[in-house]
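Blinded run. Sample ID left blank on purpose so nobody reads anything into the name before looking at the predicted structure. Input follows.
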Amino acid sequence: MPPHWTCAKNATTHPGQIILDAQQKQCTKAEKQVDDDRLAAAREQKEADALAGLTRLAEMQGWMEAMQAQAAEKPKAVKPRPVPKGRQACTSQSEEPFSKAGHQYAVGDIDSPGVMLNLKEQIFSEDESLGVGGI
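Blinded prediction complete.
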């Protein structure tokens, strides 16, 4: 059996040094007070940051509600539709109502009964002059 030699690193090390290193150091009352003050300040700062974050979140929610309410009140914009290339723009005949064979009928306020009768008389007189209808 070969002889056992101690490693060079362990030659000057105390055998119980591992236990001494693992033990917690004792603090004085002043050191403990400073440590407690530092922890309390960190806790207060964390609470203040959380409160500031919640305040900011409440402001953003209020702003978003106001924007949504404003968007709901605002009517949608009318989007123009393109005219296909094959079609022409509206002609003057299609813009004027009740045109028949190039003859224009006078139209006033259609809601009143006298105007409607006048319009019917114009149409029937036109048909009689053309010789259309009539029993």
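Unblinding after everyone has recorded impressions. The two ends are 145 Å apart (CA to CA).
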